[in-house]
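Changelog excerpt

This revision adds worked examples to the README so contributors can see how folded entries look when concatenated. The first example is reproduced verbatim below.
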Amino acid sequence: MEIDDLPYEKLKRLLKEDHAEISLNLRIAALFLVVYENLKELITDRVRDFFTNEWRSIDGELVGIPGKEYASLLNGKGVFRACRDFHLEMGAISPDDNQLIDRFIKYRGEVAHELYAILLDDKKAALDLQLLFQAHLLAKKIDRWWILNFEVPLNEDLVDQSIDEEKVASGRQLFLDQLMRVALKDIFELVEEEADGS
């Protein structure tokens, strides 16, 4: 049987050493995992830190101990759900953002558990790059909200300063921006070429 006789287009391209598509999909899949972990940690860690009022050295590492308010916030809920609800109540995220988080978490689970099929099964749709970007932008929005509402007001040097809110980001979010630019460089270049050609 020749490669061209195979019924699966994705497999044919792989066997013919056309690795561009599979390489891109592997990079996108990896970014889904990274963006998910970043969003999850951002949502939970920011709230936990907000309610932390005591620090202890445990095994040589400084660890924050949240106060009673944090335990009250959890009140039988899972940590992630309780922290999402806190963000919603505080206005850091909107109901639409909350729905986006649900969609992103569900889809990220599919990517993690069905990656083999996504890579090789012609019936499986391409990875949802738009959803990846939306989740990444949401993480940046949450990060910016915490900086503008809590970090800037507590910094005397910044209180009366004019701040371009769109440019506010933590080092972690800037690193993730760069990681996405590097991982998806070929996609961004293609989009720029198409924009220049139109």
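The second example, added in the same revision:
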Amino acid sequence: MTSKAYRLVILSLYVAMALILSYIESLIPLPLPIPGAKIGLPNIITLVSLLTLGWPLTLLVVIARIFLSGFLFGGGFSIVYSLGGGLLSLLVMSLLLHFFKDKISIILVSVFGAISHNLGQVIVAAIVVQTTSLLLYFLFLMVLAIPTGIFIGVTARELMRLLGKTTIFSKLNLPQKK
């Protein structure tokens, strides 16, 4: 059985790492004509958290990261948009991992997470500006979500592989891969 204190330490580390990745991402200018497009670096931590802690605790990681990064590097609207994208992405990835855990790769989960993150943000934007014409914008974001989702998925997969060689998560009773 894992102690609550141990889980809290892991949870805090995830929030801190996701916040650091949010900051790093804010420093990386993407040479794209699409405003708001990002790589999604904090989603590496979201995926690792989903695989190690499950969705209820990952929900805390996502919400904490969104509010902290919004207050530190963004603003009120960035929090609203990020919540729309982050929560829809978390829901989709959690459902995929729950129903297809042994049949779907972490890379594909990440791609669906990236697409749903963009969809969530576009839905929030459409509600804010009260127009559905932003759905065309979603098509451009979806094209970008595929390579970024692959990158995030590969990175999370390799991080999980490396973490599996340590004893950090031994108290979390993770399923061992052969």
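Reviewer comment on example two: The mean pLDDT is 86. Helices lie at 4-27, 42-53, 55-73, 76-100, 106-129, 135-163.
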